[in-house]
Amino acid sequence: MNPPNLTLAQYYAATMKKLSLRGTLKLSPHIKRTICKKCCMLLLPRITQKFQFQKDSIIAVQCLNCKFVKRYPTKSKTESAGARSYGTRTLWQDKEENIAKVLILGPSTNKVVNK
Question: In angstroms, how far is CA 13 from the centroid of its own chain?
Answer without folding.
Answer: 13
